[in-house]
Amino acid sequence: MIRPRRNRRTPAIRSMVSETVLAPADFILPMFVHEDTGDVPIDSMPGVTRWSPASLVREAGEALALGIPAVVLFPKIAENLKSPQGEESFNDDGLVPRTIRALKAAHPGLCVITDVALDPYNSDGHDGIVRRDPRGNLTILNDETVEILCQQALSHARAGADIVAPSDMMDGRVAAIREALDAAGFTDVSILSYTAKYASAFYGPFRGALDSAPKEGDKMTYQMDPANLREALRETLLDEDEGADMLMVKPAGFYLDVIARVRETTTLPVAAYQVSGEYLMLKSASAAGWLDEKAAVIESLTAIKRAGASMILTYFAVQAARWLRENTLKVVKKS
Ligand code: PBG
Q1: Does 218 reside within a domain?
Q2: Residue numbers annotated as active site
Q3: From ligand 1's centre to the CA of 206, what distance in Å?
Q4: Any idea what the CATH number is for the domain that residue 177 is in?
Q5: Model's pTM, two decimal places?
Q6: Residues lining ligand 1, judged by CB closer than 6 Å?
Q7: 87-140, pLDDT tens digit by residue?
Q8: How many domains does the chain have?
Q9: CA-CA to 209 of 20 to 30 Å: which in 30, 170, 183, 202?
């Protein structure tokens, strides 16, 4: 008789037939940084901290020691440095470039990724420059924004970023950033494009962490409608054509079909972002005792990898890397 259960019989057999193996090298750790000497726990994301640059460098070192190869930086910018055009976003002495330099000096082997978008710097809280018509309607300007994004990417490259990750969903920005980087001699700096970034309710806790929520309106004219899948494939083809090195789908857990289809559509590496709302759901249900945190988190990350993501941005990166290490030791001991 054919018995599929034979392949599930022992931990050793299960480990051999496992189709998806999660490893710390799959993770990218998103890190929050602010202009302060203290570290502040983030209310909207229990267990996540907004670090001073010095603490961030230390914590990134711990992540690297656990086998996590990359971090991505998200700054909280002081209110008085925000402006309609977000000029602070390309200040070479700004918070992000200084943090990149400190990271690269302390951990040359760490891959430093930066978020390229205006929302932390823009006094309107949008990812692009806002124009308001006399009736008060908002337009997010595309081409004017792309020019600033190029400046921002260049300032990150000058500071030593390995990968810039435009997260704004403006049209044409991958090609423009590639051209700007190449023209300035940064031919080796990669672009990880947020290819299919949905206008999701699950970014709420993140915006709380950075005070970066739009002051007015929503992001529906640039981020994608959660109802759409074919549009993600269109963005995939465009980003490939424009010269992206890696593509991202965001959020992750509710968009596994998108990850799978993007994976089939491109030969480029695919990343997925388990966003703040996904983190918070798992975290709060575990804190209430309703979920087994370790099992639920590992399952959620395994599912994202199974769907086709080879890189996962997750706030659980450090904890999950520790759990994976414990599990490996356990399997070895039992067999
Ligand atoms: C903004 C940006 C956002 C996130 C990453 N970059 C929020 C947004 O688009 O409003 C969300 C990440 C998360 O929720 O964990 N460029």
Answers
A1: yes
A2: 197, 250
A3: 6
A4: 3.20.20.70
A5: 0.96
A6: 115, 117, 119, 127, 167, 203, 206-207, 275-276
A7: 999 999 999 999 999 999 999 999 999 999 999 999 999 999 999 988 888 999
A8: 1
A9: 170
